[in-house]
Write a structure and sequence with these properties.
Largest sheet: 8 strands, mixed
Number of strands: 8
Distance between the termini: 65 Å
Bound molecules: iron/sulfur cluster
Radius of gyration: 24 Å
Strand content: 5-15%
Order of helices and strands: HHHHHHHHHHHHEEEEHEEEEH
Structural class: alpha+beta
Shape: elongated
Length: about 350
């Protein structure tokens, strides 16, 4: 199929069947497109929409985002996962205010220099917001292209990735860049879907090699799977009077970086927790109940969370001398970023007490 045919088919399909009512397509600005693109990294549109609406309602522009407290940004991100995205958005907003007068930059070099923005996201924002001529290569585009050309190598491999970039550049039109960019994402998201491609509705069908071979779902080829390591951690749900639970802010980098969580111990035997707490938190505690283990999978390991409830013995203020600790009020929760399993455990605690 020639690039001209590809563009013509894709754009006329988009005019009839593409998505034209997404919240970030209304009052389109580079800021709104940027936020949506960052949220859409690794996340589906239907999941993103409610988060996007809340985020934009609270932070209507770059300046408001830059002036916000990171805790509030993370709070609005709670549940969406991959929290580095939220921290990078906030960091980028500060940089844009410092270096670009609060206006989202127009040059590709300036956009890609912002934290958390790779080549595909930079291209998508500039194409969607300014109709600029840059290709994209997100998961949807990789899927369409690997099927169309029956590329039977893992797309994450360097050479294959370069080949895919060359193809996405080849198909790029001279005009209607915003529509073309949205169209190719839409085709991947709504027709050429991962497990159930609707080839009968696809404008590329007559030239798609995977369709001709009857094996679209064999593409993109998966990376050989590694067995993920298993880790165990105890989360200590320590309560004091008035339904207050101790939370600690996590370090800024690493899993759930900057979010708030329960004190964590590698000690999974509850009988050893009082001694651990005395030593680490300076608090005398009495453990109460062990809750069922919660399993949480990250890209590089499985985490088994052992939740244990506990109460303070006597009164001690030692923990308040530690930086970044708070007694979180279960009945009047304030706004702070919480890791998803912590949020669920707090909800269960609230229901129990
Ligand atoms: Fe995807 Fe099927 Fe279209 Fe090929 S014909 S691009 S496999 S939806």
């Amino acid at each position: 199929m020639t690039p001209i045919t590809f563009r013509r088919r894709l754009l006329s399909w988009f005019d009839k069947h593409g998505r034209h009512e997404l919240p970030w397509q209304k009052n389109r600005t580079a800021y709104r497109v940027w936020v949506s693109e960052v949220m859409l990294q690794q996340t589906q549109v239907t999941t993103v929409i409610p988060y996007y609406r809340k985020f934009i309602k609270r932070f209507a522009n770059i300046k408001q985002l830059a002036e916000a407290n990171i805790d509030e940004v993370l709070h609005l991100w709670t549940g969406l996962g991959y929290y580095a995205r939220a921290r990078n958005l906030h960091k980028s907003a500060l940089l844009i205010c410092r270096d670009h007068g609060g206006r989202f930059p127009k040059s590709f070099e300036a956009v890609i220099a912002l934290p958390g923005i790779g080549r595909s996201t930079a291209g998508a924002v500039l194409a969607l917001a300014n109709d600029a001529r840059y290709p994209i290569l997100d998961g949807n585009v990789k899927r369409v292209l690997t099927r169309l050309h029956a590329i039977d190598r893992w797309p994450g491999e360097k050479q294959t990735e370069q080949e895919l970039w060359a193809l996405t550049e080849l198909y790029l039109p001279q005009k209607r860049l915003a529509d073309f960019t949205q169209a190719i994402m839409d085709l991947g998201a709504t027709v050429c879907t991962r497990s159930n491609p609707q080839c009968d509705d696809c404008p590329m069908r007559s030239d798609c090699v995977a369709f001709q071979n009857g094996n679209p779902t064999d593409y993109p080829v998966a990376k050989k799977r590694k067995v993920l390591p298993e880790k165990h951690v105890t989360m200590l749900m320590l309560e004091r009077e008035k339904k207050e639970v101790l939370l600690i802010r996590r370090p800024p980098v690493g899993i759930w970086g900057g979010l708030w969580g329960f004190p964590e111990s590698e000690q999974t035997d509850p009988s050893l927790l009082p001694a651990w707490s005395k030593k680490t938190l300076g608090l005398q505690i009495k453990t109460q109940q062990q809750w069922p283990v919660v399993r949480h999978t990250f890209s590089h390991f499985h985490l088994h969370i052992h939740p244990v409830t506990a109460a303070l013995v006597g009164e001690s203020n030692a923990v308040m001398e530690l930086a970044d600790t708070v007694w979180y009020k279960l009945d009047h929760p304030d706004r702070r970023g919480l890791a998803a399993p912590v949020k669920r455990l707090l909800q269960q605690l609230r229901n129990e007490t």
